[in-house]
Design a protein that fits this description.
There is one protein chain. The chain has 3 helices and no strands. The chain has about 80 residues and is mostly helical. Helix 1 packs antiparallel against helix 3. The longest helix is centred in the middle third of the chain and has 49 residues.
């Protein structure tokens, strides 16, 4: 009986370790991706803010809409 309990505990520990490892790996990939997305969003919004009225008109974006988008925080999609 003790061996059965020990085996189940060992299996549970192995599953837990595997789950933790998967979470660490997922986070290790997700964090750099998120930071890159935030950086791109920040740069894009700054570029939008700096466009002249003619370019905004060509794109069909009003100055007000461009300003509103440019003021959005980088972490918000």
């Amino acid at each position: 009986m003790t061996q059965i309990v020990h085996h189940h505990l060992a299996d549970a520990a192995q599953r837990l370790a595997h789950g933790i490892w998967n979470m660490v790996c997922t986070t290790a990939v997700a964090v750099p991706d998120t930071l890159a997305t935030w950086q791109e969003r920040s740069e894009t919004r700054a570029a939008l803010r700096d466009l002249d009225d003619r370019l905004l008109r060509d794109m069909g974006i009003s100055r007000a809409a461009a300003g509103e988008e440019a003021r959005r925080p980088f972490w918000k999609a």
